Each structure stands twice: as structure tokens, then as C-alpha cells.
Amino acid sequence: VGVLIGRSELVNLHPAARRGLFLLIPVAAFLALGSQVPHFLDLSNLLNVARQSSITGICAVGMTFVIVIKGIDLSLAGLLAFCPMIGGILMLAGIDPPTSMAVGMLAGIILGLFNGLMVSKLAVPAFITTLVVGQIGQGLALTMNGGSSIGGFPERFVFIGNGALAGVPLSDLLLLAFLMLGFFIQRFTALGNHIYALGGNEAVLRQEGLSAARLQFFVFGFSGFCAAVSGLLLSAQLDTVHPTQGDAYQLDAIAACIIGGVDLAGGRGSVPMAVVGALVIGCLRNVLNLLGIHPFMQNVFIGSIIIVIVYLSGTIHRHSELATRGTL
Amino acid sequence: MSARDDIRANNGPGESEEPPAEASTASLNRPSRITYGGFLDLVGRNVAPTIFLSLVVLASLFVKNFADVDNAAVILKQSAIPAIAVIGMTMVLMTGGIDLSLGYVVGLASIVSGILANTWAWPAPAVLAAVLVLGLGLGLCNGLITQFMRVPAFIATLGTGYVFYGVAQIVSQGSNINRLPKDFLAIGRTPMLGLPSAVFLALGVAVVFHVLISRTIFGRQLEAFGLGARAAALSGVPNARINVTVYALCATLAALSGLLFTIRVNAAQPNMGGGPFTFEVVTGAIVGGASLFGGVGSVVNSILGVLSIKIIENCINLIGVNYNLYLAVQGMIILVAIVVGNLSNRRA
User: Fold this and answer.
1) How many CB atoms are located within 10 Å of the residue B82 CB?
2) pLDDT tens for residues A232-249?
């Protein structure tokens, strides 16, 4: 396969065209599936898919920035349980939902900033510090309520997860808001530029006299924030906080970014495409559900897809680098 | 350095109590081992044994019922299984990679061994052999993906981990297999010197792999590859073969620990091991001084690392704190271990 890609014209494509190609695959798959699977293209089903994808999608927004700076955030599984657990316990203690949610989000930001601290100041690899912080969050989420789930939250909170505005679920609107926020930072702010510089060519950043550490703090803190928000949203959708509710979303969030063309080698990837990736995963899981395929089998699919795409994009890059150096 | 000292020197009367800048830099530049003498040097070179011994002393002093022969036997029994797995993880860490699928290999090995031993009624040696071959196959997948498809280790093994987990769940059809045959249980439960045979099995594996890593050409090549792949390749080290072999051995040992785990709890469960087990094993290796950046690792120290965290787990149980706190405590231990390791490397 590698040889095939190397010889094809794929490597010479304009970046925009290559991005289009990445879009083409999900759209084609979408239409093909739609024509084959009954009820898939029903509006109610599609809105439902988008609602289910919102959790993965919001995580993917934060994850995109992390992967762009050559990191990875493996703390999602823990944060998706820990932050809503804090918020949920506060809400059940009678504190009003906005304050409780703010505390939950703050917890996510603090743990994210802690990841940033470990990566920037103490040179700990991102995958290990985030793995550890995730485990700590998971452990605390389990400890706080003795390993069992909590539920029965105020109606206002549950409405965020299940309500709709003019027929569109609030979850989808929240996803859209995060997409726009991420896209805005990425495309229209100096901060976004610097983040891409950090991932693509750190030497440039240093020449400009910019601090990598501050960017790393922001990126991991933002990812923690996204994780906290999507964890709270998940709990609002289910009206429950389960201490291991985040497990399913860790792989999906990474897969969403990778399917959306965010490059593990850093410097490349866009927020909207990562959200498209999340929708692709949502469709995939939905279709597999409609076909009656077990969730565990779905994990087998998604795990394999990640490996194959990382392999393919790595191969494409190596060949395009060789091509630009003129040795191919 | 000098610019910062200038700032400090110019800070004015507020800091006049501090020693002059020249003196402070002089003491910083002097290597600590000369300043503090032989004892700290000894500790610095033997971090894992020091942690282990101080934990034993502290726990004996402060935790009721800890210093007890039965309790020591419990800790050894519980450590045997992660001790086998940590050997493989240490080798993988020595290459600079990581195997996040380890815990899921344990689960898959568990359910497969249960099916072979119970449903298919295979004799115990055949089950053992089949499970080891299964582990070898899974490890080869990991190794080939990381080496030849050039997928970073953590993402490759994260992906395969989900695949293995899914396969284990599908194979088990969602249920555990209990009441395994006696000859199968005998592999890990035969009492010897008051301890189950699993402990001695772990000891045997540890001796073999200690020799393999510290006394053979393979061990040398592994170390060279971990310290610098390019230099190793130029010196004729077969990097690709080493890398694939290490993942294969790691999963084989993980499969063995899955089998022994199954025997210990007398139930084959697809959920066995999983993320928490992987995490425990990585923690053990890191506390044992293995470097995440490759090149550094020792079987003995990693096993001492596992014993150390098992002592902490044991104390959490004895004190009667919520057991779920163990995950969080482990996380903090691993972070401290990594940070201390990084800082001491930076100073050296």
C-alpha cells in the first residue's frame, strides 16, 4: 500500500485538495450507508446521531490543539467522569446548577493546566502525564461516591442535555459553539498561529521569542475544559454520573481527530475537520448499532481504523517529504 | 545563568541576608555526591531498593498487622502476577516505547485459557502452551505495527488494546467461566514452601529475563537500541528484530500473567486486567527506575517497583481507606517518580 501511495499523485495535491479528499471519504461513506441502512437518513435519527456525537466532538475540539502540538490527551476518560462527579455531588447537595457546573469545569481546567505544567516545565511526555492524570481523576471519581453512580439532578441541568431549541437539540448547538470557538482560536488569533508554529516548527517560535510553555499550558488547559464540558453534557443527557462513563469516549475522541486529518506528527489539523471526524464516528457507531453489531465489535473496528489511518498519513508524509527534497 | 545571578545580586538590601551570588553558584556547580558523601550516592544509584526498603520499614512501624508472615505471603502472592508482566513492560520501555495493550492481553488470555481448559477440556500443558502462543501472536501484531507501519507505540497499542478487548468480549459472549479444572489450577496453585507455585514461576521468569537483559548480546543490543536507534543501527544492531521481539515477549509474559490471574481467582473473565492493570505495571516499572525515554531498565528494580506499589495497596487495605483511592494514589506515585527521575537526570 505504501508504495502505491508513494507513486500516486496524492502527495502532490494542494493541501486544500487533500483536505477535500479527507472530506470525500466520510461523505461517500455517509451516502452509501444511508442508501443501504433503513432509517439511517431519517431526520430524527440524524439529529440523534449528532446529539450522541456532541460528547466526542467537544472532546475532539480540545484534542485537536493537543495533537497539533505533538501531544495527546489520554486524561479524557478520567476527566469525563471526575468533573461531572464533582458538579453532580454539589448539585445534589443543593447548590444551584450553574455554580456546580462552573466548579466542575474549573476542576477540568486545573487538571488540564497540571498536564501542561508536567509537559512544559518537567519534560514529562504528554501521553504519560495525561494517562496518569486521567487515572487520578478516575480514582477520585470512584472514591467520591464509593464506586457507584449518582443521578436525579435538577431539571434545569437535565434540560441542557435533552432540551431542544427550535427543534435542534441543545447538545448540537453546544457542539457548534465549541466548533466555532476552536475554529476562531485556530484561524483568527495570534494564539492559534503560535500553537501551529509550536507543532510545526518550534525553532521559528523560539526565534520570535515566544514561550512554548505558555502555549502548552493553554492547550492542555483548554483540552481539560472541553473534557469537563462534554462530561457535564454527557451527565446532563443521561441524568446520571457514572464513575467510568468516560471510558468509551477516549478512543473515539482520538479517532475523531485522526479521521479528520489531524496529524499525530504535529502542526497539521483543523478543528472543523475533527468535528466532522466525530460525526463520522457517530454515524459509524449508529449504523453498526442499526445493523445489530455489538459495541465491542465496534471498538475492534475503530481501534483498527485508527492504526490504519495513522499508518497511511505517516506514509503520505514521508513520501511527500522525500518528494520535496527531490529524492523520490 | 550569569544574567540571573546579576539580577539576584542587584536586588538590593531586601535580599542582603542571602549568601553572595558567587558562593551560591559554586555550591550549585559542585556535584552533590562529593558534598553529601557516600551514603546519598549509594541511595542515588539504588533508588528502587531504597524506596522498597523504606516502605517496608515505614509500613512495619506505622501500619498495624503489616509486619506479619501471613501478610508478607499475601503481598508476594499478589505481586507475582504483575511482576511477570512488568518484566515485559520494562523491556518495551527500554526501547523507548510503551505497551498500553498489556492489560487487554491479560483479559483475552484469561478468557481463552478458560475456554480451552473448561469448555474444550484441554490438558493443562496444552492450555499453557496455547495461551503463550496467543500472547506471542498478539505481541507480534504490536511489534510489527510499531516497527514496520511506523505508528507511534502508544497509539498503536492503544488501538490494538481496544481490538483485543473487543475480541475478548466477543469470544466470551459476555460471561465469565467459573470452576476451572483441577489440573489447570495446579499450574499456579500448587503449594511450595507455604507459597503458591505462581510465586516461584514468577521468580523463575525473573531470573531468566534478568540474565537475558543483563548478560546476553540481546540485552546489550536492546540497551543500545533504546539509547539511540541510529547509533545502534550503525553499529550493526538489528533494530527491527529487537523492537518486534520485545513487543512479542511483552505480550507473551502478559498472557502468562493473565493465565496465572485466572488461576488465582478461579474464573476466566474478559474484563480481567484492562487499563488499571496496564497502569499498575507501568507504575511499577517507572518506580523501579525504567526511563520513558528508553535505554534504562532493570528486571530486579522493576520487580522491586511492583512490590513497592503492592505494599502501598496492602497498606491501603489494612488501614481501611476506600480501596478506590488506590488508583489515585498510584497516579501520584508515578508522577513523583517521573518528576524526580527527570530532575535528577537534569542535574547530572
Assistant:
1) 28
2) 999 999 999 998 888 889
Chain A CB contacts of B147 under 8 Å are none
This model of the complex carries an ipTM of 0.79
Cell matching residue A153: 439532578
Residues 192-211 in B contacting A (C-alpha not used; CB under 8 Å): none
Query: A143 vs B325: CB contact, 8 Å cut-off?
Result: yes
Of B169, B279, B293, the CB nearest to A296: B169
Please tell me the distance from the alpha carbon of residue A245 to that of residue A231, in angstroms, as a whole number.
8
> Which residue is it, cell 471526575?
A82
- B173 close contact with A: CB closer than 8 A: no
Top residue of A121, A257, A299, A317 to mutate, by most chain B CBs within 10 Å, is A299
User: Reduced to 3 DSSP states, what percent helix, strand and coil does chain A have, rounded to the nearest 5?
Assistant: 75, 0, 20
Residue identified by cell 483498527 is: A304
Instruction: Compare CB distances from B328 to A140, A146, A302 and report the shortest one's residue.
Output: A140
Radius of gyration of chain A from Cα atoms? 20
Q: Is B324 on the interface with A (CB under 8 A)?
A: yes
**E strand or H helix at B267, and its extent?**
strand B267-268
A263-310 pLDDT per residue, tens? 888 888 899 989 988 988 888 888 888 888 888 888 888 888 888 888
Contact A299 B165 (CB under 8 A): yes
Q: Hey, is the C-beta of B156 within 8 angstroms of any chain A C-beta?
A: yes
Is residue A166 packed enough to be buried (19+ CB in 10 Å), middle (13-18) or exposed (0-12)?
exposed
Q: What is the spatial distance between Cα A123 and Cα A120, in angstroms, rounded to a whole number?
A: 6
Question: How many residues would you count in chain B?
Answer: 348
Amino acid (1-letter code) at residue A297: M
Chain B positions touching A133 (Cβ under 8 A) are: 331
A81 touches chain B (CB under 8 A): no
Mean pLDDT on A167-174: 88
The CB density around residue B184, as the number of other CB atoms within 10 Å, is: 26
pLDDT at A21: 65
Q: What is the pLDDT of residues A71-125, one digit of tens each?
A: 999 999 999 999 999 999 999 998 999 999 999 999 999 999 999 999 998 888 8
Distance CA B329, CA B29 (A): 35
The whole-angstrom separation of Cα A129 and Cα A119 is 7
Interchain pair B152, A136: CB under 8 A = no
Distance in angstroms (rounded) separating the CA atoms of residues B230 and B226: 10
